Amino acid sequence: METNSNISAEIEILALQALGWVLQDEDRAQRLLALTGLDPADLRSGLEDPAVLSSLLGFLANHEPDLVACAEAIGVPPEKLAAAAHYLNNPGDFT
């Protein structure tokens, strides 16, 4: 996969790991599509699009139980996923 030069590889990897986690549960995946307005084609074609990745991470950041569960599953602090979502909406420092 070629990385988007507008976002860091770390954020892109976090978002893709989070997407994998979301898609493991059909109900959660359907909620993602319903709340973000994305469809499966948008997800496939937008894996390097900061707006799509922002929608995905925002979906998690706006529902703390999913944010915490996802962070635990992929081995990062929930704050890191929330910071990545914030960064994609407001580019600046990512820590």
Low-confidence stretches: 1-5
Which whole number gives the mean pLDDT? 87
Q: What is the radius of gyration?
A: 12 Å
* Helix/sheet category: mainly alpha
Helix percent band:
over 70%
> How much strand content do the residues show?
under 5%
What general outline do the C-alpha atoms trace? globular
* Count of extended strands: 0
Largest sheet: none
Report how far apart the termini are.
23 Å
Spell out the helices and strands N to C: HHHHHH
Give me the oligomer status.
single chain
| Count of runs of 4 or more consecutive helical residues | 6
Task: Give an overview in words.
By secondary structure, the chain is mainly alpha-helical. Helices cover 71% and strands 0% of the residues. The protein contains six helices and no strands. It has helices at 9-23, 26-36, 40-45, 50-61, 64-74, 78-89. Helix 1 crosses helix 4 (50-61) and helix 4 packs across helix 6 (78-89). It starts with 8 loop residues before the first helix and ends in a 6-residue tail after the last helix.
